[in-house]
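User: For a benchmark we're assembling, each entry needs the component sequences followed by a predicted structure for the full assembly. Here are entry 17's components. Please fill in the structure.
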Amino acid sequence: MKKVCMMGLLLLVSFGLLFAQGSAESAPAAAQTKKPVEITFWHAMGGVNGEAMNTLVTNFNKEYDGKIHVTYEYQGDYDDEFSKIQASGGNYPCDIIQVYDIGTRYMIDSGWVKPVQDFVDKDHFDLAQIEPNIAAYYTVGGKLYSMPFNSSTPILYYNKTAFDEAGIKEVPKNFDDIIAISEKLKQVNADGTVKRYGFGMGNYGWFFEQWVGKMGKNYVNNNNGRGDKPATAVAFDSNGAGLQIINIWDKLLKSGVAPYLNQNNADAKAAFIAGNICMTLESTAALKSLLNNVGDKFEIGVAYFPSINKDDVGGVSVGGGSLWMLDTKDNTRMDATWEFLKYMVNAENQAYWNKMTGYFPVTTKALDTETFKENVKKYPQFQVALNQLHDSKPQYAGSLLSVFSESRQIVQAYIARLANKELNPQQTLDGMAKDINKAIETYNKVNY
Amino acid sequence: MNVDKKRKLQHVLIFLLNVPLMLIILVPLFYTFSISVMPADEIYQNHLIPTSVNWINYIQAFTNPYYNFLRMIFNSFFVSIVVMLAQMVTCSLAAFAFSFLEFKGKHVLFLAVLATMMVPGEVTIVANYLTMTSWGLLDTYRALILPYMTSAMGIFLLRQYYLTFAKELYEAAKLDGCSNIRFLATIVTPLSRPALGALGAYEFLNTWNQYMWPLLVTNSKNYRTVQIGISMLYDIDAESLGLMMAGVIIVIVPSLSIFVFMNKQLINGLMAGAVKG
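Assistant: Structure for entry 17:
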């Protein structure tokens, strides 16, 4: 009996606590006129990136003390956060949200967002200070929709120590080069098993998209999804880009140049760090974590993201995320949001952000800051990444698609079947195109 | 003497069989732990045992105000314990009705309750979310607790256990003028401690391990639970495996210890309902 009583008591107490909390919350806020404008910011940065974000926002709050206060909250990784905004976006749960690159078309179509361009025009903000190749990605129909914030491109990482040992001086530019030098780097055990591969990469849909852009071709129709109307079908099947990519992929796997390293990039990264592959593809933003994990085991070199063919004329596009302003219809809050966005992309902050995370500084002036210069001196590899970005052109900004995350999954699933020798390259391409087209069609039917 | 020997042999055999099993189960846990204390450049060298131990990851997880693990641990404990207690109460009340009382439509009702077990939680998550939004409960402890205050699994488990009680017990109590509530509180509940304990431990772990629901209904750090804390330690472009693994260890310690303490109850309780029904 005693125990039951205790249990009941505990329960009562905990309920009391619950509702005590509730009454405190619902108490009307004291009507103060001089209160700072409160805005909420949802982000998806974990680990060291989250810590750097923390510093930036804390500094902002200090600087704008009494005027604007930003509450920023981590909302899970990009996918989780995106699901959350899809579920609750219509209620405008926040003022600013960080969304990944591939969520761009969805955000534009949602009707919840206020294009950043409106404030750029109103405030006469000089857009030329934003890296043109980064801004291009988030510009649709001449309008900059969201403020670029964390941007990266894929890049080739190589084991410089292994290159030196094998006497390789030229860094590979395309897959012909990669196949040629992989032979020199490959090490085979006495029993015939491979000890070390020259090249290896994760089965990551992002690379597929990048190669299409690197050929200067479109991934989807309707001006790569950037036209007045959203894309209605993929274009990589009819313009030949897809088949060329799949053929190279098939060749790498069949000829034993590269092992199959599973979907996404974690395994490829681990294999590279462990020294089991000498070259791999990864985001520029991974540079710091690669350097940390490799330590002084070997020297890391970087080179441009390799093209499929020798004579490809195109460029890389940015991945990562940008900051979206939700159209809360509250002008005071939206003005405060704009102040915050400007602060996040000012030169000093972008240099700091770049130093802490490895994402590109999205502001060109950041390149003149001491912080940036010191950082590049420390990590000269970063200069290569930056050159690659500058060598690209706004017209290769990459495609927009509302079902991009699904499309990426489909590409990966078919490449996995190709690796498994279930399908030949043509079947792989046809399957991919068919499934993605179906996803696009379903989405368009429901949403337009 | 012979029997004794036989028993000893049996013990040794069981022990020998269990050792490899234990190793298989414990090695990943141990590896998680050793990654969390390894220097960063050692993680990818396939070492099972770190050459040197450093606690920097733990210190960071606890002291960096950005992660605020202590608060999240408190939140998780608070929510899990309230859910656990609430389920013990609601489930035993419902189970009592379904086992001792006679009323019209009892079986249909019970089947309806069971049917909800067939609906995966993911299906109702959006509907629940909309309900919470319209009640204005987002970002409160109530949103984390309310939808989980009862469960079909709990009702079923306790009902099966109560069915093992002799009907005469209830009738005798009734004859002596005992009310239903008193009978439940003073006779049934003490006798069903194994089942209640099993239910409690099970629900505690379930709530402790929730990820999607707390992420959806909480927006601020004040109400975040530990599972979200772990994902905060991770980033696709800048992963720090050591820190993540430290987070994993911090989070599984409470659930593991619950299992150690409640082990007996858990196994007894789950078995008890299963045999007789």
